[in-house]
Amino acid sequence: GTKYTFFIPTNAAISQAVKDGWLPGDTATGTPDFAPADDNDKQKVTQFITYHILNSNTIAADGKNSGSYPTVLKTTGGDITLIKINNSPGRMQLIDELNDTAEVNIAKSNILSDWTLIHSVNKVLKCDAQ
Predict the structure, then answer these.
(1) CA 82 to chain centre
(2) Cβ(120)–Cβ(104) below 8 Å
(3) What is the pTM of this model?
């Protein structure tokens, strides 16, 4: 068993990411394409999923652990990608590799699973893994 932390964006965050072109779908309505046929769109989904998972770390929204943590996503050159976490009692903020911030919804977070902790976030985390 390896420890993981999952950051799951809200439906509104997913819709905004589609509108912004970070995820495949209808950019006018924000409706995601759940089964993209285009290889570039498939890569967007893969990058999205793997960048929202911390590798070998479980970080609770409890104010105890802050810093930069590696994700499951690797760049095309094999380098790790990071998410910076600012964690204080009652608040957890994430900073992605493009320096955008997302807030963890504390009321809908700290969900336990086998070797995994799940958090709800208000934005899609972004990374250019080239």
Answers:
(1) 11
(2) yes
(3) 0.94
pLDDT category of residue 3 using cuts at 50, 70 and 90:
very high
Token pair recorded at residue 44: 């967007």
Alpha carbons 106 and 129: distance in angstroms, whole number: 28
Question: How far is Cα 118 from Cα 129, in angstroms, rounded to an integer?
Answer: 23
3-state secondary structure of 18: helix
- Outline where the chain has alpha helix (H): 11-19, 39-51
Helix (H/G/I), strand (E/B), else coil: 60: coil
Interval 83-121: pLDDT, tens: 999 999 999 999 999 999 999 999 999 999 888 999 999
Tell me the C-alpha distance between 64 and 60, whole Å.
8
Of residues 41, 92, 83, the one with CA closest to residue 62: 92
